[in-house]
Amino acid sequence: ALNWTDSIHEEHPTLGGVADLVIVSEVIYKSTLPFWSALISFLNQLRSQRRSTCVERKGLLRDDGTATPGSDPLVLLGHTHRRRDLSVEEERQFFAMLRDVGMKAWLIPYTSVPNSEQRALTSLFELRD
Predict the structure, then answer these.
(1) Distance between CA atoms of 18 and 124, rounded to whole angstroms?
(2) Which residue among 17, 59, 91, 95 is least crowded, i.e. fewest CB within 10 A of its CB?
């Protein structure tokens, strides 16, 4: 596990290069609320590290016919809605914080996820510009 408050360059210089894929799941809880800005900053570090050090590659094709930018890692967020732990307003706060730094959470339709059920509790998002 990575400490979200770490600097990638200072604390993890040997992370193994730059990320092509970042998977973040089960991180939006009331207990993690004080660390959301650190998580979002860490995700942005991963994105900027790739942008500044990589030769552009072919983007990954999405179901809607668009592609990820060749210089960006694919960032996926799995989020299970747990209303007992987090209010709707607090959940919205997380997604607003993403928007404040230029990231949007694009919901990946269940029909695009193999073996998913129509009424699944967990939503899968792609975080992108």
Answers:
(1) 23
(2) 17
Distance CA(52)–CA(72), nearest Å, equals 10
Give the residue from 31, 25, 36 showing the smallest Cα distance to 1: 25
98-122: pLDDT as tens digits: 999 989 998 887 776 666 665 567 8
Nearest 10 degrees: Cα torsion 26, 34, 74, 14:
-100
- Measured from the Cβ of residue 59, the count of other Cβ atoms closer than 10 Å reads 14
State pTM to two decimals: 0.75
Q: Would you state the structure tokens that stand for residue 53, as one six-digit string? A: 């050090």
Give Cα 53 distance to the centre of its chain.
20
**Stretch among 27-41, 86-100, 103-117 having the lowest mean pLDDT:** 103-117
